[in-house]
Amino acid sequence: MQVGHRGRAFVAVAMIPAVVGLAGCTSNDDKKADESTTSTTKPAVDPKKVSPTDLPQPPAIENAAGARQEAEMGECKTAAGSQEVTGKITNAGDGAIDYVVVVNWVNGSSDVMGRGVAVLKAVEPGAAVDWSVSAEVAEGAEACTLNVQKGTVTE
């Protein structure tokens, strides 16, 4: 079956409203989508709930073992700014060993808002050694956590 010039013209003319209608809808929808994704509002992230990116990292410890029970921690204030915490480690083992003390200042969802690290080298058995850490604490800290490990510091 052959389609003459009139048939081709009819098909082409019949498709014009469909193409124009589609183009019209797409253009307005895209414009609305662009407007809805462009925002001048503040970010949805609350800085009181984000850990600072420059927290000090504790050194590596070979043959690490938890030693929280061998540590005491003094008062830990959570106000934003410079903070210091002191405490004491008592080596309950049979030989000299290294200790790494980490104090984290955390918010209500356990995000770390500040961190202090102390390294005590070769603490003799039975010895009680004072330690101190300091940190710049970001706004939002609500509590302090203490982590103590013993072993051989490799860094």
Give a written overview of the molecule.
With 155 residues, this protein is α+β, with helices and mostly antiparallel strands. It has 2 domains: 1-41; 48-153, Immunoglobulins (Immunoglobulin-like, Sandwich), CATH 2.60.40.10. 21% of the residues lie in helices and 40% in strands. The protein contains 1 helix and 7 strands. The strands form 2 sheets. The chain has a 4-stranded antiparallel beta sheet, with no helix packed on it. Strands 2-3-6 form a 3-stranded antiparallel beta sheet, with no helix packed on it. The longest helix is centred in the first third of the chain and has 33 residues, at 5-37. The N and C termini lie far apart (86 Å). Residues 25-82 are annotated as: Disordered.
What is the total domain count?
2
- CATH fold name of the largest domain: Immunoglobulin-like
How confident is the prediction overall: mean pLDDT?
82
Q: How many helix segments? A: 1
- Give the overall shape, derived from the CA principal axes: elongated
Q: Could you state the oligomeric state of the chains shown?
A: single chain
According to DSSP, the number of beta strands is: 7
The CATH class name of the largest domain reads Mainly Beta
Strand content: 35-45%
Neighbour order of strands in the largest sheet? 1-7-4-5
One letter per element, helices H and strands E, the order comes to HEEEEEEE
Biggest β-sheet description: 4 strands, antiparallel
Query: CATH superfamily membership of the largest domain, which one?
Result: Immunoglobulins
The percentage helix is 10-25%
Kindly provide the radius of gyration, computed on alpha-carbon positions and rounded to a whole number of angstroms: 33 Å
> Which architecture name of the largest domain does CATH use?
Sandwich
Runs with pLDDT <50, length 5+? 9-15, 18-22
Q: Which structural class do the helices and strands define?
A: alpha+beta
Q: What is the CA-CA span between the terminal residues?
A: 86 Å
Region (Disordered): 25-82
